[in-house]
Amino acid sequence: MRNGEGGEPVAEDPKRARIAKRLKKSKRKRFLRILFIMIVSGTILGVGGYWLSGTVQPVDLTIRNIKIRGNVTIDDQTVKDQAATAIGQNILTVNLNELAADIKDSLHVRSVAIVRAFPNTLVVDVKEMPILCAVNNGSQIYYVNNRRKVVMTSPYLSNTNVPLLSGLTLKGRYRSGETLSFAPWRRQDEAFAILKTLEAGGMLTKVSEVAYTSDNTYRIITKSNLNIEVVSVGNLQKHMDYIQTLFSQKQSNMNVDLTTGPYPIVKNR
């Protein structure tokens, strides 16, 4: 019941009363539903957190491994030795730029890039300087670029993709970055010009050795055991088409003398 304008009691509308009752009941159900969801969610989070705390171990971010890629002449261990200062450091805080610069300067390579491989590995990507040939001084191998500068040294011939230059005498011992000097010095430029001509013609990877001989000629020995003898780089250039044909035909076990005139002297071996 409610009072009217004159204070007289007025009967409530049954329909409005039913609606009000339903709304009140609906609010109570919604409250109980929310309360139930909160209790269940809290229980799940509590149980899940307790389980995770007992099963998930903290991740070890200490650098323990170094992987090398991109290297051709330089062996993996040489690069790893230069990167060894990173071992034991935290992978998140190690200065990769500084480490890459140190490796680049030590190995005299074209570039070094280092990336993190979580949780505990560094990947070192090495781009080496172009190598024209290798020179053996009897106790050490020098890998040399087209300016006669030492790209790297090795106690053994580790890269058979570049030819060996022999027959010239090295003056002294050298370190990476230094320029080789040979005797007789007049012949060193000729020998390197021959190597660069073979490289420009796409044939250098098929050559195993270029040897300066006691007859003041240059013997080009291929991996298929084809011996081509020239007297100078000009002599080589005059016969480039013929030499290209020999390579394309995969000729082997032959001696080809180009020093005597316009026509080659060919002998089977």
UniProtKB/TrEMBL annotation:
Tree of life domain: Bacteria
UniProt GO cellular component terms: plasma membrane
Gene3D superfamilies: membrane protein fhac
POTRA domain: residues covered: 61-129
Subcellular location: Membrane
Record flagged with keyword Acyltransferase: no
Pfam family membership, one: POTRA_1
One GO BP annotation of this record: cell division
Record's keyword annotation contains Cell cycle: yes
Transmembrane segments: 31-52
Keywords, sorted A to Z: Cell cycle, Cell division, Cell membrane, Membrane, Transmembrane, Transmembrane helix
Protein name: POTRA domain protein, FtsQ-type
Organism: Pseudoramibacter alactolyticus ATCC 23263
